[in-house]
């Protein structure tokens, strides 16, 4: 798991900049014989695609994926699967000021500090556009774990939280916010519109549940399932916090309140009476739903001017024009799902390798 | 970063069970020429050692470390450094019931589901006793990053939060809770005593700050400094949540409220007006203090009986006798520091390798 | 170094099949600020390109490389460099018989045994066409090690050995065999012509010398410079043997005959009186030229019919039509150079990371 | 596979110096439930142990192994297995001259060039004593691959080659040379005695055959079974060449002469009519015996004085007293077997992980 490669056994290497000719991923270690075509990948990219509602960036990218290797007669061959997505709607002139001054909260300054210079067009490599490569790779991963059902949804935008009692999975795809609570979705329209019009931006919380993960996946101590999920989620642009199960709320429970009591289940497997642990104990899946929650900060690229410095170190002020998501958390939901799928596919193969 | 090895360039491999003859770590990739003796490691182990107050487990382990390789005439040679700590106070008979029934919230069931059987004595490999190996390895890592100052402290036990205004670093080592607020420390005595007497346990929140991390350490995209920290922290026993900088609170800020505005600094480097980001942007250090916060659940091993099943799948009830920390979060503070040091040492070497 | 990724710090991931739409490599970990354009890569691909003489396969591939990421304004940015080469001269119908019967000596049967099926067109992933990706990646690696000069040449075809006394580096590029001895090159024309006309093929030995490698690169014990070179060279198609320095001949020397005696050198560095060791001791470069020699078997795809079985297990006979190199060893020379450059670039960064 | 860790899925990390208190290995990734005790490891260490005949070093090391973790009630638990061997017969005063002057052919100078200084006692980390850790780890690996039978033997000492027609596996353990030809073994007694008395040393060639390796183990392109074997063998002290199957001799064969023709076998699997390939094609096992051959140079530490320089760069002469093997190739046979077992165990788990 180093630099631009993710995973141990089911691995992908991502490449590409926001305004380069293309971006992509090379998936390596995928088992052979899995049915795969562009049609299996495209729907997931479409979910993440920008410009589908007024609540996301207006950049128009069709995000058409091409499979360049690793598939023969409709099935994976076990060799590397190269996926490529061409960029078609670059508008680099918007970034003239970004090239000289640093957007606070963005990676601009850090990249310059590390590399000495950077590709400023659209944020270059630090752009969330890279997440398209993840979503494409994850579509392949999904074929490796047909026993698992994954869904991610927003529980909060700008501090406005859904009503858990109103949660309805069927609602998630019926609004532009991946929101399971229709009343919250309605409120969020106003919230996001207001932020956008004010030249501001909003943060969000995304929750992701994976059902069907067999007890046993995961591995102590430095390939813990929750450790890998935390690392994976924190690698997503704008994520600042990760919780497994009850997360920070668990720190406020007493031992007996946090215990996921067990009773004999119908099929020899335990029947858990609660899931505070989020489906993972000791880094290993317990067979309960795996639950992850991530916090995303508000978009750093905003129209409201902010104090900053330029590349020479002089005082400056920056207002980011370009085209940006007023709430990056919205389009993060498919990416969170993708990372969940990628981690689980990797752990399925790792488990099978060690345990047989 | 796989299984029982952590790190890419500065790596350690940990081994050992709670009630085995010994535990240890092999540190690999350490630069040569660094002064190192057991005396450099022992104080850090002493901070983590059990039995130092009535608020931790009463197991009496001296935790004496031996260096078995990799050091010649008081300096590291660049070859692997083998560190060993003997276990002396095993009392395995306490675990007879744990061998047959599963402690809810603990790794017992998950290990059996994965491996088919397990070493139940003291939790075997899943015991927090393994963290002694991390602390020893981290003492070596500290020698690699003399420019960095790390401190971890508790901000919360059982939901009782410190007063940030009363924070005094000097207080951290003056109470048995690594608490920077003396008033909170006084309250926590009562809280933890009460939990212990009630056969219950408490959760906690640990915060860790690293000052002196140069801008530039870290790497996009799957070796992000925050991604690695998240994975590292989540690998610690009982951790259920990780935040960088403002963490989940950032999700409730507007873009301009979350921006860490920059002004020209005295030495050509930026002067940041805030640190919502926790010192990391785009996965790369900005030169500000790196701030991480982790949530620890209450100890799963409690005296209060809990419903469970046994290895045959039959209904059972379990009350864990043994010797346990009433609040694992307390002794986690030195471990959180250790993981911070280990991640930073690794990234210093990675940065130097790629950038020169 | 796993599956389709090579290297630890300077890494590349290769992808693509012989008759797919394209092949390529993603180079990761390259330092920033190195001048790089397609013009820096193309000449190396041209050296390896098929169809340049009657002694190589007649497949006509222009092997034009495109840089899709990781370069901005003519310099590497430190982010992944995606390189793509389109296949244009596929003639897959030639492989109808290969799809059903196994070519002895080729990977056909082994791939089927592993994956259950395979892409038979042109050998799919097992084709030496993949080495174009290595050569492209190595062109990037060369920019990382400007202090090193690498040259590979053939010392032997079909058992006909060059005259070491006649070795002239200037001759290497003057004949189609990368042969430093013009008299041997003249003889080889007849040899290879005869083999081609007979529907047979020939093996070869390639030697590679890297000058300018500083003492200290390399690392005990499982990242030894010679260990990495051996693994790298053996990963090239048709390679069956690797020697460092005197190689197998060293096994016939006495201790004092094998010793590379040292005298004080002009600049404080040792002056070696011999180089039996091939520039590596204990896995670490000594500052002498690094010398590697590899043996390549004769091309397995030959016109002469050979006994085999088909996919059903029935007896068959196979004569491979297609277009093949009568001596794969010839075009291997640029690939051996490439692997040398890739290993050395990786070790330069590893050394810099650990030692500073 | 980095630095002091070997393997991807079945991994071990080795540590220890020649004259330190102990050396050892941590085996990670071993499947659970495999019977293992010290008694399963000790016989393999005894085969490699020094001082068992007058043809090896007279250092007396009992090489008693202790298992410190990872085994419970006689079976592996799936967690790391820590193996430790104490050094008892260090005699460091023999190395006073080695500390100041460099032995030509040895790692002394290279280590100083890399690390700035080194532990000179007995060669420190560069001593072949480290191979005890490999042999111990390999004893664990053997339990993972019960289907495979491995034997290594010498085919050549000091240029004196065995008679292949006289090869008898039963002879291998009946002489101190692991020699399958009793006549050659008798000759080698005189050869090695003479070299020892002359203060010289001899090289050797070791061949290793693994039977029972199923078709399919291995993986293109950078985890090829032969690539991994080559890297593994070259990591053994004093190895300068590696061949798979016919090796360099294959370079002198014509295509049809090198083809391993196939006929229908009794059980649906192919019956191969030859094994020039050494059981590997395209990096993947074919089901035939896997054959590797390695060349070992003569021991670099010899009594005969050799010209060298000292640490200050001044001219010197060195004659190594200490206790050394007159032919390191002899005791390398168990180490070559060990690396074969370690590579195969790793590939079994990798194959199972990807293919299921």
Low-confidence stretches of chain A are none
Principal-axis shape of chain A = globular
Most extensive interface: A-B, 111 and 110 residues
Cα-to-Cα separation, first versus last residue of chain A: 23 Å
Radius of gyration of chain A: 21 Å
Assembly type: homotetramer
What is the number of beta strands of chain A?
A: 18
Characterize the biggest β-sheet of chain A: 5 strands, antiparallel
Q: Please give the count of helices of chain A.
A: 8
Determine the strand fraction of chain A and express it as a percent band.
15-25%
Give me the strand/helix succession of chain A. Answer: EEEHEEEEHHHEEHEHEHEEEEEEEH
Tags for this entry?
homotetramer, 356 residues, alpha+beta, 5-stranded antiparallel sheet, 22% strand, globular, FMN (chains A, B, C, D), Chorismate_synthase_CS (chains A, B, C, D), NADP (chains A, B, C, D), amino-acid biosynthesis (chains A, B, C, D)
Please give the structural blueprint:
Four copies of one chain form a homotetramer.
Chain A (H helix, E strand, L loop, with lengths): L4 E2 L4 E6 L5 E7 L9 H11 L16 E3 L3 E2 L2 E2 L4 E6 L9 H5 L7 H8 L15 H14 L4 E9 L2 E2 L20 H16 L6 E8 L13 H10 L4 E6 L10 H4 L3 E3 L5 E3 L7 E2 L2 E2 L4 E7 L9 E4 L5 E4 L9 H28 L1
Antiparallel strand pairs in A: 1-2, 2-3, 3-7, 4-7, 5-6, 8-9, 8-10, 10-16, 11-16, 12-13, 14-15, 17-18
